[in-house]
Structures are given as C-alpha cells and as structure tokens.
Amino acid sequence: MATEIIEARGHIIDSLVLPRILDEILNHGGNFELLDVDIGKQRMDPSYARIRVTAPDQKQLKEILAAVRDHGAQVVGEGGITLAQAPADGVFPEGFYVTTSYPTQVRYGEEWIPVERQRMDCGIRFDPERKRAETAKFCQVRAGDWFVTGSTGVRVNPPGRGRERSIFEFMSSEVSSEKPKHAIIRELAQEMREARAAGKKTLLVAGPAVVHTGAVPSVVGLIEAGVIDLLFAGNALAVHDIENALFGTSLGVDLEHALAAERGHEHHIRAINRICDAGGIRAAVESGILRSGIMHACIRHGVEFVLAGSIRDDGPLPEVITDVIEAQQRMMALTEGVQIALMAATALHAIATGNILPATTRIVYVDINPGVVTKLADRGSFQTVGLVTDVGLFFGDLLEQVRGPEPAVAARPRMRRSMVAAGNGGRRSRR
After folding, report:
1. CATH number, span 181-422
2. Contact predicate 197/274, CB 8 Å
3. pLDDT tens-place string over residues 174-201
4. Edge-to-edge strand order for the sheet containing 74-75?
5. Cα 177 from Cα 349, distance rounded (Å)
C-alpha cells in the first residue's frame, strides 16, 4: 500500500470542492481517511480538511494526487517544482504539467509564484532567474525553455461559489424551459456596466445567426453604448453583416419582410467582392461604401476584432486571419483584462475562446440549441451561464436593459455556473 497526506483549504464545503476531492480518490481506486476537518463558522470563513490517501501502489497514488490537485488539494510538506528543458521548438519535455483554467501557483524554493496568463491545456514555462511562471501553448514553446514537469510544487485554486446568494439557487437543472431568462439578462446588463466602470473588458463572440435573426441594430446599440470592447468572429459574421448593410439581406433573405430576395443567393458573394475592391472593411468604412452594421460600428467606435478563418469560408474578407495559429495568438493577446465573455450562436468560436480564458472570466453563452449551450461547460469552462433562446430576442432585451436605469440595490445576486434559460424558437446558420 502507498499512502500520502493531503490538505485542502478555502471554501471547500459550500463550493463542493471537498466532495469532488473525495470522489476523485475513490474513482481512481484509492481510499481516504478524514484526519481533520475544520468548517468555517461564518459565511466568509474558509474551511480546512486534512486527508490520508491510500492506494494499492505508488503509480496509482501518483494518479490520485494529480487528479486531486486540479481541485486545489496539496500534499503536506511537499517540495518545489521540478523543471526540464524543451527538446525542440513546439515540443514540451516528457511529463510536463498540463494546466487547467483555474488560478495556479508554483513553488520555487520557499516562494509560491502565480502563473501568468492562466489558460487550460498549456504547459507552465518557468524562468529561474526572474522567478516568473506563465502558460505556453505548443506554438509558443522554444527549444531550451524550462517547463514544470510532474505535479509536485503546483497549487491550483478553483474559484469558489460567490458569497452572495443567487436568485437561481433553487433551480439546479442544467437545461430547462423554466429558467428566468429576463432576470439573467437584467443581471448581465448590470455586470457589463460594472465592468465598463472598472476599466475591464467585455468580449463578444458572435456567429452569423446574430445577423440572420435581425439582431444587428441591437448589437450596434451595445457597441455605441460602450459595453462591448472586443469582437471575435469568423468570416461569416462579417460577410453577412456587410451583406445586410449593402443589400438588406442575410443569406439572401430580406430581413425586413422575411422573404427570399430575387437572386439573393448572390448577395454575400457580391458583398465580399465590393469589400475586397475597396481594400478591406476599414477602407470601405472610411470611403463611405460601408455605412452601417456591426463591422461599421466596430471601426467607428474603436472596437478591436479578430476574424478567424475556416476552410469553408467564401472569400474570405481581407481582414480575416487564415492562419489558425496566428488567429489564436492574436486572440490570446487581446483577452488580457477580459472580465465578461458574451458568446452567441457560434459553438466553434465559443469553445475556442473558452479554452483560452481563465476560470475567473464570466462566460455567457446564448444559442437556440440546448445541446450547444451545454457543450462549452462540458469542455471545461467553469463560470458559464447558458441561455437557450433566440439570439435576436436576447440582444434586443439586453440592449433595453443596458440603456435602462441602473438598479439601486446594494447587493445583487451573482450569476452561477450552468444557469440555462429558455425562450422562443429561432434558427442558426449552417455556416
């Protein structure tokens, strides 16, 4: 038998961290003995647990310890990190530590050093001279860089449940038609106003269904209100937004009358051609060719955007980044300081963005498809609120709430993970 003593501290009871640690031990074939449990007496008080873990052999014990570390457990009296050099560009050393999206620290000597640019599915690059740790993806690895190997000396701090009681606490199901959608949108609007006041960023990740459902005026209104700071999208969102601005259609459908326009199937191709002839989106705005729409508002109001390309794109537009590594690096550079990520009707871009955001970023995902709404949380994104509704109705309601009077209440309920509301039907693009 192999044994080790671990400890966990923080809000491990109310955030259900302790039960998850015990489940990991049992699921990996081990057993546990609770040696000491000190539960905080007040809501703000942290709790503490000391646990003896036993396993059939050292290999299985090592697997258990690696699993419980992701929930913030730490081996009592363990040493600092072990380091190894990358053998080549784009290649981590064997046994490198793989990060989660949770805030992480590494122990070097007697000092705990926070890991910068926290995101999931990365290695931890460490500079011994500067005592600096940061995450790195494959494309960022350079031969000779030092990386953390194993899990010794790594401490993970899962975000705890908010101290304020949520008005949605009584609703615990993942997907339901009985979620208070309007209340969540009202709270989101307040969160966005607070982020703006604190100098933090709100990121919009949007798919072409935002245009198809007639939400363009509402999104433009949010940009003009100053609550959208960044836009991540694909070629299709920009193409159909510009098609709508130039021809009044989206995928050839007249958005005012919901009827197919004559030869409307050509409109998005002609829109691409007109922008290419102008020299790009910015040039089209500055020359007066493009006078409305989401992309026009981004240019006019200084909202930075990343349009990431796909193998199925028509065109693409000149601003579209067709190198996926370059697009990913650009997205990672811009996500610093993002407090809220609002994602609508784009599973591909939402999951990609969720993977590069730390768990401390609030994510709100909106889609008409319940399966797509839950997918982001399934990929490991922690603080996610899901709304199952038509995105056109959602953005209209959100703009109304953003423009409305701010609630004069001292304590607001906070959004919790996987709160899913349902609304009326809509449709999403196949693009």
Report:
1. 3.40.50.10690
2. no
3. 544 456 788 889 999 999 999 999 999 9
4. 31-38, 47-55, 2-10, 74-75
5. 25
Q: Which stretches within 148-247 are classed as H helix?
A: 181-197, 209-212, 216-224, 235-247
Please tell me the pTM assigned to this model.
Answer: 0.82
Which of 315-340 are b and which e, b meaning 16 or more Cβ less than 10 Å from the residue's Cβ? bbbbebbeeeeebbbbbbebbeebbb
Residue with tokens 């935002």, as numbered in its chain = 210
Look at domain 78-159 and name its CATH class. Answer: mainly beta
Give domain limits for the chain.
1-76, 78-159, 181-422
Q: Which tens digit of pLDDT belongs to each residue from 214-261?
A: 999 999 999 999 999 999 999 999 999 999 999 999 999 988 888 888
E-assigned strands of 66-209? 74-75, 82-85, 104-108, 111-116, 123-127, 132-136, 146-149, 154-156, 201-206
CATH of region 1-76, choose from 3.40.50.300, 3.30.70.2690, 3.40.50.800, 3.20.20.140: 3.30.70.2690
Pairwise CA distance, residues 283 & 349, whole Å: 26
Identity of the residue numbered 133: A
The residue with tokens 């906070």 is 414
